[in-house]
Design a protein that fits this description.
The chain is of the alpha/beta class. It has a single domain, classed as P-loop containing nucleotide triphosphate hydrolases (Rossmann fold), CATH 3.40.50.300. The chain is 27% helix and 21% strand. The chain is built from three helices and six strands; from the N terminus they run βαββββαβα. The chain has a six-stranded mixed beta sheet. β4 and β5 (77-80) form a beta hairpin. The protein starts with 16 loop residues before the first strand and ends with a helix.
């Protein structure tokens, strides 16, 4: 899904929650709480959490990998854009935007609420 790809009658019908804030401010806990309450799934907008093996200092949630839908599941809530590429591969804001739009569309198609969570305002604004 690219900006403007939704039919005019669909614009504004779908809601997305965005949680943005400084490191260690409780964003992940808030996102999980909202996801549980409102049937949501989380897309991480952290520019370091996308990389496999970069676990120290990135604040990745603990969970188990669900290969079926390509998500890290923490407290029963799927988290996307975590551990999706290797550190030696390029993954920039354009890549994130394409990935996030696709995941938003998938989450909405399941009747769930997309929750974008992270500290990378640049990625969220994309």
């Amino acid at each position: 899904m690219e900006p403007g790809s939704l039919p005019a009658e669909e614009v504004g019908k779908n809601k997305i929650i965005v949680i943005l804030g400084p490191t260690a401010s409780g964003k992940s806990a808030a996102a999980i709480g909202l996801a549980k309450k409102f049937n949501g799934e989380i897309i991480s907008a952290d520019s370091r959490q996308v990389f496999r093996g970069m676990d120290i200092g990135t604040g990745k949630v603990d969970g188990s990998w669900d290969a079926g839908n390509g998500a890290l599941v923490s407290e029963g809530v799927p988290h996307y854009a975590i551990d999706i590429t290797d550190p030696n591969e390029d993954f920039n804001v354009t890549d994130f935007k394409k990935y996030a739009y696709r995941k938003i569309e998938e989450i909405l198609s399941r009747g769930k609420l997309p929750i974008i969570c992270g500290g990378t305002g640049f990625w969220i604004s994309a």
